[in-house]
Every structure is written in C-alpha cells, then in structure tokens.
Write a structure and sequence with these properties.
The chain is mostly helical. The chain is 71% helix and 0% strand. The longest helix is centred in the middle third of the chain and has 65 residues, at 58-122. Keywords: Calcium, Calcium channel, Calcium transport, Glycoprotein, Ion channel, Ion transport, Membrane, Transmembrane, Transmembrane helix, Transport, Voltage-gated channel.
C-alpha cells in the first residue's frame, strides 16, 4: 500500500487516519477537493474539522476550517449565486428583446403585405415573356391543376408507405 501522509500520523507515530471517511482527506487532490466542497456546502463540515484537529495541529486545523467556512461558504458561494442570478437576468433581457424584435418584425411584415396587396390591386398584372410559348403554357396549366397536385401527393404518400 501507499505510505500515509504526515498529517495522518499522530504524535506517538501511530497512523490516525480519518475514520469512516476513506475518500475525504488531504492525502490526494480529489479527496482534498471533496473535503473543501463538503465544507463549502456546510454539510458535515464539523466532523471533518474534528478529524483534522485529531490528526494534526489543533490551532492550524481550527484556523484553516474557520477561514475555509468564511471564505468559501459566505463569500464564494454568494458570489457564485450572484453570477448565476446575473446570467438569468441577462437571459430574460435577451428573451424580452428578441420578443420585441419579433413583434416589430411581424408588424412591419404585415404593413408591407398590406401595401403589396394595395399596389397589386392598382397595377395591372403583366404576363411574363416566357408564357408566350405554347409548351410553357401547357406545362403551367398541368402543374397548376388540382388533379396534378393530388397525383403528386398520392405518389409521395405511396413512397412513405413503401419505406415503412
């Protein structure tokens, strides 16, 4: 096995590890981060502090945990919550701006559509030059026929059914 760190050896030279917390200690970085996070959330931090007091210098452990709670729980946690709240407010503002832009855009499009209808009524419809050709007129008549539209829909539905 691995050799325990100097913090888990007591004054008599005996190993005094962290009872019932095999993964929460300062012997490796993952356990140290987990200990700091558990202390930051203030869930069971007193047990961790007592384990540290038992395993190393009492004054240093008290000072360390006092500073850890003051800095992380009361300061950094509030800063993190403030950042989250600020981001939420920014998203709400962006949503409101997008909604206002969409309403303005739809109102502008409605006005343009109304103007286009009025202009179409006033202007005579000019026939496109390619409509003078007899095959183009025949193809246009066939494609704008309801029977042709139903035939195309029947073909598409048949294709979907055969692909199932």
């Amino acid at each position: 096995g691995s050799k325990p760190s100097k913090w888990s050896v007591d004054v008599n030279g005996e190993i005094s590890g962290w009872p019932e917390t095999d993964f929460v200690h300062f012997d490796h970085i993952g356990g140290a981060f987990l200990l700091i996070f558990q202390s930051m959330t203030m869930e069971g931090w007193t047990d961790l502090m007592y384990y540290a007091v038992d395993g190393m210098n009492v004054l240093f452990a008290w000072f360390y945990f006092f500073m850890l709670i003051v800095i992380t729980s009361h300061f950094l946690l509030n800063v993190a919550l403030a950042v989250v709240d600020e981001a939420r407010e920014d998203f709400e503002k962006e949503d409101e701006e997008e909604q206002a832009e969409e309403e303005e855009k739809s109102a502008t499009e409605d006005i343009k559509a109304d103007l286009a209808v009025l202009q179409d009524d006033e202007e005579e419809e000019e026939e496109e030059p390619w409509m003078d050709c007899m095959p183009v007129r025949a193809a246009n008549a066939v494609t704008h026929n309801d029977i042709f539209s139903y035939f195309i829909m029947f073909i598409i539905a048949g294709n979907v059914i055969t692909m199932m």
